[in-house]
Amino acid sequence: MALIRQLTVEAGLKAEQDLLASVCAGNEEAGLLLWQPTDRALVMPRRLSRSAGFDEASVELAASGWPILLRETGGEPVPQSPS
User: What angle do CA 55, 77, 38 make, to 5 degrees?
Assistant: First the structure.
């Protein structure tokens, strides 16, 4: 198995959620996931999707090649890309 997995941003976020769920369910004592995106997206906390202008900004960013993907955890927007 490769140490660093090559995944789309969407697949990477899902892999993180799956690992967390497995640890929380007691199936794993701990977990570590290293992944590098094969595409690009702007990942941001779900709470920001309630901000004024979010829908319009999402359309503009997607049109410029930066789709927005939401995560359940907090923090700030983080660009993800292969570079």
Answer: 95
